[in-house]
Amino acid sequence: xxxxxxxxxxxxxxxxxxxxxxxxxxxxxxxxxxxxxxxxxxxxxxxxxxxxxxxxxxxxxxxxxxxxxxxxxxxxxxxxxxxxxxxxxxxxxxxxxxxxxxxxxxxxxxxxxxxxxxxxxxxxxxxxxxxxxxxxxxxxxxxxxxxxxxxxxxxxxxxxxxxxxxxxxxxxxxxx
Length: 176
Fold this sequence. Notes:
This protein has 176 residues and is α/β, with parallel strands linked by helices. It has two domains: 39-102, Ubiquitin-like (UB roll) (Roll); 103-176, DNA polymerase, domain 1 (Orthogonal Bundle), CATH 1.10.150. The chain has helices at residues 2-23, 66-72, 122-126, 133-146, 163-169; strands spanning 43-50, 56-61, 96-99, 115-116, 173-174. The chain has a three-stranded mixed sheet with strand order 2-1-3, covered by helices on one side. A two-stranded parallel ribbon has the order 4-5. The chain is elongated and about 85 Å long. The protein starts with a helix and ends with a strand. The mean pLDDT is 80.
């Protein structure tokens, strides 16, 4: 009887060991053996201009906001009027983000006085009679390419501004 108990115990042990060894396929992978997931963030470019440390084209991740684009451009310069910009607004590919400086005024801040040609945004310029988005952008581009206006009459050098248009806006603009 003792032999049969030993035989049964040996048979049971063999089954258990065989089951364990049979299910073992080799070394178990460790965390470092597992493939690294590929994280691919979609990125795009925006143009950050104005009162930032390094104005120019920067790359931001999909879903970025204005504050992240500013950070990619080196941050704000001393005197930047960030309160005039929605820092939480989402940015889109190809967008220009303009950070105003100390001489820039918020829309409505300077309603009593003339528009300053050297600091006015395209939106401010569009408030002038006969100035739409295209002409406002031409005025901005002229200023960016040639520097500040020295006198109001310099507007005549901008394509689309003639004597009649200048006469209609002369008293509404100024060159500091």
